[in-house]
Amino acid sequence: MVLQQNLPRPPSKAPQRSLELSIIVPTYNEAGNLASLIRKLSQVLSGISWEVIFADDNSPDGTHRLAKEIALADPRVRCLRRVGRRGLAGACIDGILSSSAPYVAVMDGDLQHDEAILLRMLHTLEDSDMDIVVGTRYREGGSAIGLAGHRGAISRFATALTGWLLPVPVSDPMSGFFMVRRDRFEEVAPQLSHDGFKILLDLLATARNLRISEEPYLFRAREQGESKFDLRASLEFLGLLAAKTTGDVIEPRFVPYAFVGALGMVVHFVVLKSALQGAGLSFEVSQSVATLFAMIANFFVNNVLTYKDLRIRGWRILKGLAIFCTIGAAGFVANIGVAHWLYGDNHVWWMAGAAGALIGAVWNYAMSSRLVWHLR
Ligand SMILES: Nc1nc2c(ncn2[C@@H]2O[C@H](COP(=O)(O)OP(=O)(O)O)[C@@H](O)[C@H]2O)c(=O)[nH]1
Ligand SMILES: [Mg+2]
Fold first, then answer.
1. Residue 29 CA to ligand 1 centre (angstroms)
2. Number of independent structural domains in the chain
3. Relative to the alpha carbon of 227, which ligand is closest?
4. Of 53, 159, 228, best ligand 1 pocket probe by most atoms within 8 Å of the beta carbon
5. CATH code of the domain covering residue 43
Protein backbone atom coordinates (compact mmCIF):
# COMPACT_ATOMS: atom_id res chain seq x y z
CA MET A 1 0.00 0.00 0.00
CA VAL A 2 1.13 3.54 -0.71
CA LEU A 3 1.84 5.63 2.37
CA GLN A 4 -0.83 8.31 2.12
CA GLN A 5 1.11 10.74 4.32
CA ASN A 6 3.77 10.94 1.59
CA LEU A 7 1.30 12.12 -0.98
CA PRO A 8 -0.30 15.51 -1.50
CA ARG A 9 -3.78 15.97 -0.08
CA PRO A 10 -6.33 16.13 -2.93
CA PRO A 11 -8.92 18.96 -2.96
CA SER A 12 -11.59 18.26 -0.33
CA LYS A 13 -14.56 18.92 -2.63
CA ALA A 14 -15.12 18.63 -6.33
CA PRO A 15 -13.28 21.43 -8.17
CA GLN A 16 -15.42 24.49 -8.91
CA ARG A 17 -13.51 25.34 -12.07
CA SER A 18 -13.75 23.23 -15.15
CA LEU A 19 -10.68 21.26 -16.10
CA GLU A 20 -7.96 23.43 -17.66
CA LEU A 21 -4.97 21.15 -18.10
CA SER A 22 -4.41 17.42 -18.69
CA ILE A 23 -0.83 16.29 -18.17
CA ILE A 24 0.12 13.05 -19.90
CA VAL A 25 3.06 11.18 -18.45
CA PRO A 26 4.26 8.13 -20.41
CA THR A 27 5.75 5.59 -18.02
CA TYR A 28 7.70 2.38 -18.22
CA ASN A 29 9.16 1.20 -14.91
CA GLU A 30 8.90 4.52 -13.12
CA ALA A 31 7.34 3.35 -9.85
CA GLY A 32 10.12 5.04 -7.86
CA ASN A 33 9.27 8.44 -9.34
CA LEU A 34 5.45 8.63 -9.26
CA ALA A 35 4.85 9.97 -5.76
CA SER A 36 7.51 12.69 -6.10
CA LEU A 37 6.14 13.76 -9.45
CA ILE A 38 2.56 14.08 -8.17
CA ARG A 39 3.82 16.02 -5.16
CA LYS A 40 5.74 18.44 -7.38
CA LEU A 41 2.76 18.90 -9.72
CA SER A 42 0.47 19.67 -6.76
CA GLN A 43 2.87 22.31 -5.54
CA VAL A 44 3.27 24.20 -8.81
CA LEU A 45 -0.31 23.84 -10.07
CA SER A 46 -2.18 24.74 -6.91
CA GLY A 47 -4.05 27.64 -8.57
CA ILE A 48 -5.55 25.77 -11.51
CA SER A 49 -7.74 22.76 -12.26
CA TRP A 50 -5.58 19.94 -13.63
CA GLU A 51 -5.27 16.18 -13.93
CA VAL A 52 -2.37 13.83 -14.58
CA ILE A 53 -2.71 10.67 -16.65
CA PHE A 54 -0.01 8.04 -16.49
CA ALA A 55 0.10 6.18 -19.80
CA ASP A 56 1.80 2.99 -18.72
CA ASP A 57 2.78 0.05 -20.93
CA ASN A 58 2.12 -2.61 -18.34
CA SER A 59 5.42 -1.92 -16.55
CA PRO A 60 6.86 -5.02 -14.88
CA ASP A 61 7.69 -2.92 -11.80
CA GLY A 62 3.96 -2.31 -11.24
CA THR A 63 3.93 1.44 -12.04
CA HIS A 64 0.29 1.09 -13.16
CA ARG A 65 -0.77 -0.56 -9.90
CA LEU A 66 0.84 2.18 -7.87
CA ALA A 67 -0.71 4.88 -10.07
CA LYS A 68 -4.18 3.35 -9.67
CA GLU A 69 -3.72 3.06 -5.94
CA ILE A 70 -2.87 6.74 -5.73
CA ALA A 71 -5.80 7.52 -8.05
CA LEU A 72 -8.23 5.89 -5.60
CA ALA A 73 -7.52 8.67 -3.12
CA ASP A 74 -6.82 11.50 -5.57
CA PRO A 75 -9.27 12.12 -8.43
CA ARG A 76 -6.71 14.31 -10.20
CA VAL A 77 -4.69 11.18 -10.93
CA ARG A 78 -5.60 8.62 -13.59
CA CYS A 79 -3.79 5.71 -15.17
CA LEU A 80 -4.17 4.26 -18.64
CA ARG A 81 -2.68 0.77 -18.52
CA ARG A 82 -1.90 -0.43 -22.04
CA VAL A 83 -1.36 -4.14 -22.52
CA GLY A 84 0.27 -5.97 -25.44
CA ARG A 85 1.84 -2.74 -26.70
CA ARG A 86 5.08 -0.83 -26.23
CA GLY A 87 6.01 2.61 -27.39
CA LEU A 88 6.49 6.05 -25.96
CA ALA A 89 4.78 7.91 -28.81
CA GLY A 90 1.76 5.58 -28.87
CA ALA A 91 1.34 5.85 -25.10
CA CYS A 92 1.36 9.68 -25.32
CA ILE A 93 -1.16 9.70 -28.18
CA ASP A 94 -3.53 7.31 -26.36
CA GLY A 95 -3.14 9.30 -23.13
CA ILE A 96 -3.90 12.61 -24.83
CA LEU A 97 -6.90 11.17 -26.64
CA SER A 98 -8.24 9.71 -23.40
CA SER A 99 -8.32 13.16 -21.78
CA SER A 100 -10.40 16.25 -22.42
CA ALA A 101 -8.98 19.48 -20.96
CA PRO A 102 -8.56 22.29 -23.54
CA TYR A 103 -4.79 22.25 -22.99
CA VAL A 104 -2.66 19.17 -22.77
CA ALA A 105 0.95 18.72 -21.69
CA VAL A 106 3.30 15.79 -22.22
CA MET A 107 6.12 15.32 -19.75
CA ASP A 108 8.43 12.48 -18.72
CA GLY A 109 7.79 10.52 -15.55
CA ASP A 110 11.41 10.45 -14.38
CA LEU A 111 11.56 14.02 -12.96
CA GLN A 112 13.97 15.15 -15.70
CA HIS A 113 11.46 17.73 -16.98
CA ASP A 114 11.03 20.80 -14.81
CA GLU A 115 7.38 21.08 -13.74
CA ALA A 116 8.00 24.71 -12.71
CA ILE A 117 7.49 25.93 -16.30
CA LEU A 118 4.05 24.32 -16.73
CA LEU A 119 2.15 27.39 -15.53
CA ARG A 120 4.08 29.71 -17.85
CA MET A 121 3.38 27.36 -20.74
CA LEU A 122 -0.32 27.39 -19.90
CA HIS A 123 -0.47 31.19 -19.66
CA THR A 124 1.27 31.52 -23.02
CA LEU A 125 -1.38 29.35 -24.66
CA GLU A 126 -4.25 31.09 -22.85
CA ASP A 127 -3.06 34.64 -23.47
CA SER A 128 -1.73 34.44 -27.04
CA ASP A 129 -2.58 32.80 -30.32
CA MET A 130 0.20 30.20 -29.96
CA ASP A 131 -0.79 26.57 -30.59
CA ILE A 132 2.06 24.84 -28.82
CA VAL A 133 4.77 25.66 -26.27
CA VAL A 134 7.88 23.52 -26.44
CA GLY A 135 10.16 23.09 -23.43
CA THR A 136 13.71 23.71 -24.66
CA ARG A 137 17.13 22.91 -23.24
CA TYR A 138 18.92 24.86 -25.95
CA ARG A 139 17.75 28.49 -25.48
CA GLU A 140 19.08 30.97 -22.98
CA GLY A 141 17.83 29.98 -19.53
CA GLY A 142 17.69 26.30 -20.49
CA SER A 143 20.27 23.58 -20.02
CA ALA A 144 20.81 19.93 -20.86
CA ILE A 145 23.11 19.44 -17.93
CA GLY A 146 21.26 16.28 -16.86
CA LEU A 147 22.06 14.58 -20.17
CA ALA A 148 25.25 12.80 -19.32
CA GLY A 149 27.73 10.74 -21.34
CA HIS A 150 26.80 8.97 -24.55
CA ARG A 151 23.06 9.73 -24.11
CA GLY A 152 23.92 13.45 -24.33
CA ALA A 153 26.09 12.96 -27.42
CA ILE A 154 23.31 10.99 -29.17
CA SER A 155 20.79 13.71 -28.34
CA ARG A 156 23.03 16.49 -29.71
CA PHE A 157 23.71 14.50 -32.89
CA ALA A 158 19.99 13.78 -33.34
CA THR A 159 19.15 17.47 -32.83
CA ALA A 160 21.74 18.55 -35.45
CA LEU A 161 20.59 15.89 -37.95
CA THR A 162 16.96 16.90 -37.54
CA GLY A 163 17.76 20.61 -37.97
CA TRP A 164 19.56 19.75 -41.18
CA LEU A 165 16.86 17.51 -42.68
CA LEU A 166 13.55 18.94 -41.51
CA PRO A 167 12.22 22.50 -41.49
CA VAL A 168 10.99 22.46 -37.87
CA PRO A 169 11.67 25.90 -36.40
CA VAL A 170 12.49 24.90 -32.81
CA SER A 171 15.78 24.76 -30.93
CA ASP A 172 14.99 21.42 -29.25
CA PRO A 173 12.99 19.14 -31.58
CA MET A 174 14.08 16.11 -29.49
CA SER A 175 12.23 17.51 -26.48
CA GLY A 176 9.56 15.31 -24.97
CA PHE A 177 8.18 18.22 -22.93
CA PHE A 178 5.47 20.39 -24.48
CA MET A 179 1.96 21.77 -24.08
CA VAL A 180 -0.49 22.02 -26.95
CA ARG A 181 -4.04 23.12 -27.63
CA ARG A 182 -6.25 20.07 -27.64
CA ASP A 183 -8.15 20.98 -30.83
CA ARG A 184 -4.92 21.33 -32.83
CA PHE A 185 -3.65 17.99 -31.56
CA GLU A 186 -6.90 16.15 -32.26
CA GLU A 187 -6.84 17.42 -35.87
CA VAL A 188 -3.55 15.69 -36.66
CA ALA A 189 -3.77 12.70 -34.28
CA PRO A 190 -4.85 10.21 -37.01
CA GLN A 191 -1.66 10.96 -39.00
CA LEU A 192 0.80 10.50 -36.13
CA SER A 193 3.03 7.46 -35.81
CA HIS A 194 2.56 5.25 -32.74
CA ASP A 195 6.04 3.77 -33.08
CA GLY A 196 9.02 5.51 -31.69
CA PHE A 197 10.19 7.95 -29.08
CA LYS A 198 9.77 11.31 -30.74
CA ILE A 199 6.18 12.40 -30.62
CA LEU A 200 6.97 16.13 -30.65
CA LEU A 201 9.09 15.85 -33.79
CA ASP A 202 6.34 13.87 -35.51
CA LEU A 203 3.70 16.41 -34.43
CA LEU A 204 5.73 19.41 -35.67
CA ALA A 205 6.64 17.73 -38.97
CA THR A 206 3.07 16.53 -39.60
CA ALA A 207 1.14 19.70 -38.62
CA ARG A 208 3.37 22.16 -40.38
CA ASN A 209 1.33 25.28 -39.64
CA LEU A 210 1.46 25.23 -35.82
CA ARG A 211 2.28 28.52 -34.12
CA ILE A 212 5.15 27.63 -31.84
CA SER A 213 6.55 29.24 -28.71
CA GLU A 214 9.50 27.98 -26.66
CA GLU A 215 10.08 27.92 -22.91
CA PRO A 216 13.59 27.22 -21.55
CA TYR A 217 14.09 24.78 -18.70
CA LEU A 218 16.84 22.88 -16.91
CA PHE A 219 16.84 19.21 -17.85
CA ARG A 220 17.60 17.37 -14.62
CA ALA A 221 19.58 14.17 -14.18
CA ARG A 222 17.60 10.98 -13.71
CA GLU A 223 17.83 9.74 -10.13
CA GLN A 224 15.58 6.66 -10.08
CA GLY A 225 15.18 3.98 -12.74
CA GLU A 226 16.96 3.98 -16.06
CA SER A 227 16.67 5.38 -19.58
CA LYS A 228 14.74 3.29 -22.12
CA PHE A 229 16.38 4.95 -25.12
CA ASP A 230 18.01 2.00 -26.88
CA LEU A 231 19.07 0.76 -30.34
CA ARG A 232 15.48 0.24 -31.38
CA ALA A 233 14.51 3.78 -30.30
CA SER A 234 17.47 5.17 -32.31
CA LEU A 235 16.42 3.23 -35.42
CA GLU A 236 12.81 4.32 -34.97
CA PHE A 237 13.99 7.92 -34.78
CA LEU A 238 15.91 7.53 -38.07
CA GLY A 239 12.80 5.91 -39.53
CA LEU A 240 10.69 8.90 -38.50
CA LEU A 241 13.21 11.28 -40.11
CA ALA A 242 13.19 9.19 -43.31
CA ALA A 243 9.37 9.21 -43.39
CA LYS A 244 9.08 12.95 -42.80
CA THR A 245 11.81 13.98 -45.27
CA THR A 246 10.15 11.89 -48.01
CA GLY A 247 6.60 13.10 -47.36
CA ASP A 248 5.69 9.74 -45.74
CA VAL A 249 6.70 7.71 -48.81
CA ILE A 250 9.06 5.62 -46.66
CA GLU A 251 7.41 3.81 -43.75
CA PRO A 252 9.38 4.44 -40.50
CA ARG A 253 9.72 0.70 -39.89
CA PHE A 254 11.59 0.23 -43.16
CA VAL A 255 14.72 1.75 -41.56
CA PRO A 256 15.16 -0.90 -38.81
CA TYR A 257 14.26 -3.53 -41.43
CA ALA A 258 17.01 -2.30 -43.77
CA PHE A 259 19.45 -2.16 -40.85
CA VAL A 260 18.72 -5.83 -40.09
CA GLY A 261 19.15 -6.60 -43.81
CA ALA A 262 22.63 -5.02 -43.69
CA LEU A 263 23.48 -7.16 -40.65
CA GLY A 264 22.25 -10.17 -42.64
CA MET A 265 24.81 -9.38 -45.35
CA VAL A 266 27.54 -9.55 -42.73
CA VAL A 267 26.23 -12.94 -41.54
CA HIS A 268 26.10 -14.09 -45.16
CA PHE A 269 29.74 -13.25 -45.87
CA VAL A 270 31.05 -14.67 -42.61
CA VAL A 271 29.25 -17.99 -43.21
CA LEU A 272 30.24 -18.04 -46.90
CA LYS A 273 33.91 -17.54 -46.06
CA SER A 274 33.86 -20.19 -43.32
CA ALA A 275 32.07 -22.72 -45.52
CA LEU A 276 34.35 -22.12 -48.51
CA GLN A 277 37.70 -21.75 -46.81
CA GLY A 278 37.14 -23.37 -43.43
CA ALA A 279 35.01 -26.39 -44.37
CA GLY A 280 36.20 -26.62 -47.99
CA LEU A 281 32.66 -26.88 -49.41
CA SER A 282 31.91 -26.02 -53.04
CA PHE A 283 30.86 -22.46 -53.85
CA GLU A 284 27.27 -23.45 -54.67
CA VAL A 285 26.81 -25.34 -51.40
CA SER A 286 28.56 -22.59 -49.37
CA GLN A 287 26.43 -19.89 -50.97
CA SER A 288 23.21 -21.82 -50.26
CA VAL A 289 24.20 -22.45 -46.64
CA ALA A 290 25.14 -18.76 -46.19
CA THR A 291 21.83 -17.61 -47.71
CA LEU A 292 19.87 -19.89 -45.40
CA PHE A 293 21.81 -18.75 -42.32
CA ALA A 294 21.37 -15.09 -43.22
CA MET A 295 17.62 -15.50 -43.77
CA ILE A 296 17.15 -17.32 -40.47
CA ALA A 297 19.25 -14.71 -38.62
CA ASN A 298 17.28 -11.89 -40.27
CA PHE A 299 13.99 -13.47 -39.27
CA PHE A 300 14.91 -13.76 -35.60
CA VAL A 301 16.51 -10.31 -35.33
CA ASN A 302 13.52 -8.70 -37.08
CA ASN A 303 11.20 -10.55 -34.72
CA VAL A 304 12.79 -8.97 -31.64
CA LEU A 305 13.84 -5.60 -33.10
CA THR A 306 11.84 -4.38 -36.10
CA TYR A 307 8.60 -6.09 -35.11
CA LYS A 308 9.11 -6.22 -31.36
CA ASP A 309 5.55 -5.02 -30.79
CA LEU A 310 4.13 -7.75 -33.08
CA ARG A 311 6.56 -10.45 -31.95
CA ILE A 312 5.74 -14.05 -32.95
CA ARG A 313 6.12 -16.60 -30.17
CA GLY A 314 5.89 -20.36 -29.66
CA TRP A 315 5.18 -22.75 -32.52
CA ARG A 316 3.97 -19.95 -34.78
CA ILE A 317 7.66 -19.06 -35.19
CA LEU A 318 8.11 -22.05 -37.53
CA LYS A 319 5.27 -20.97 -39.79
CA GLY A 320 6.53 -17.36 -39.76
CA LEU A 321 10.03 -18.47 -40.66
CA ALA A 322 8.79 -20.62 -43.57
CA ILE A 323 6.76 -17.72 -45.00
CA PHE A 324 9.69 -15.32 -44.45
CA CYS A 325 12.07 -17.59 -46.38
CA THR A 326 9.57 -18.06 -49.22
CA ILE A 327 9.13 -14.29 -49.51
CA GLY A 328 12.94 -13.90 -49.42
CA ALA A 329 13.36 -16.39 -52.28
CA ALA A 330 10.77 -14.56 -54.40
CA GLY A 331 12.47 -11.24 -53.52
CA PHE A 332 15.76 -12.67 -54.71
CA VAL A 333 14.23 -13.60 -58.07
CA ALA A 334 12.72 -10.08 -58.37
CA ASN A 335 16.11 -8.54 -57.47
CA ILE A 336 17.95 -10.53 -60.17
CA GLY A 337 15.19 -9.93 -62.74
CA VAL A 338 15.17 -6.15 -62.29
CA ALA A 339 18.97 -5.89 -62.19
CA HIS A 340 19.30 -8.04 -65.34
CA TRP A 341 16.71 -5.99 -67.21
CA LEU A 342 18.32 -2.65 -66.25
CA TYR A 343 21.84 -3.87 -66.95
CA GLY A 344 20.80 -5.07 -70.40
CA ASP A 345 19.35 -1.60 -71.05
CA ASN A 346 22.19 0.72 -69.99
CA HIS A 347 25.14 -1.42 -68.83
CA VAL A 348 25.73 0.67 -65.68
CA TRP A 349 26.46 -2.24 -63.34
CA TRP A 350 26.21 -0.41 -60.01
CA MET A 351 22.91 1.25 -60.88
CA ALA A 352 21.40 -2.05 -62.02
CA GLY A 353 22.74 -3.78 -58.91
CA ALA A 354 21.44 -1.10 -56.51
CA ALA A 355 18.01 -0.97 -58.18
CA GLY A 356 17.72 -4.77 -57.99
CA ALA A 357 18.69 -4.80 -54.31
CA LEU A 358 16.26 -1.96 -53.54
CA ILE A 359 13.34 -3.69 -55.28
CA GLY A 360 14.21 -6.91 -53.42
CA ALA A 361 14.34 -5.10 -50.06
CA VAL A 362 11.06 -3.24 -50.63
CA TRP A 363 9.35 -6.45 -51.72
CA ASN A 364 10.66 -8.37 -48.71
CA TYR A 365 9.66 -5.60 -46.33
CA ALA A 366 6.16 -5.08 -47.74
CA MET A 367 5.34 -8.78 -47.95
CA SER A 368 6.85 -9.92 -44.68
CA SER A 369 5.27 -7.01 -42.79
CA ARG A 370 1.85 -8.08 -43.99
CA LEU A 371 2.14 -11.88 -44.25
CA VAL A 372 4.57 -12.76 -41.47
CA TRP A 373 3.99 -10.09 -38.79
CA HIS A 374 0.45 -9.10 -39.87
CA LEU A 375 1.10 -5.38 -39.75
CA ARG A 376 -2.09 -3.52 -40.60
N1 LIG B 1 4.38 4.07 -21.86
C2 LIG B 1 5.68 4.06 -22.20
N3 LIG B 1 6.53 4.95 -21.66
C4 LIG B 1 7.83 4.89 -22.02
C5 LIG B 1 8.33 3.94 -22.93
N6 LIG B 1 9.67 4.15 -23.09
C7 LIG B 1 9.98 5.17 -22.27
N8 LIG B 1 8.88 5.62 -21.62
C9 LIG B 1 8.76 6.75 -20.66
O10 LIG B 1 9.07 7.93 -21.37
C11 LIG B 1 9.79 8.83 -20.56
C12 LIG B 1 11.15 9.16 -21.21
O13 LIG B 1 11.91 7.97 -21.30
P14 LIG B 1 13.42 7.86 -20.83
O15 LIG B 1 13.71 6.41 -20.77
O16 LIG B 1 13.64 8.67 -19.60
O17 LIG B 1 14.18 8.49 -22.08
P18 LIG B 1 15.36 9.56 -22.09
O19 LIG B 1 15.04 10.63 -21.10
O20 LIG B 1 15.34 10.03 -23.51
O21 LIG B 1 16.58 8.78 -21.75
C22 LIG B 1 9.91 8.16 -19.20
O23 LIG B 1 8.85 8.61 -18.39
C24 LIG B 1 9.75 6.69 -19.53
O25 LIG B 1 9.24 5.94 -18.45
C26 LIG B 1 7.40 3.01 -23.50
O27 LIG B 1 7.73 2.15 -24.31
N28 LIG B 1 6.10 3.12 -23.11
MG1 LIG C 1 14.52 10.42 -19.11
1. 9
2. 2
3. 1
4. 228
5. 3.90.550.10
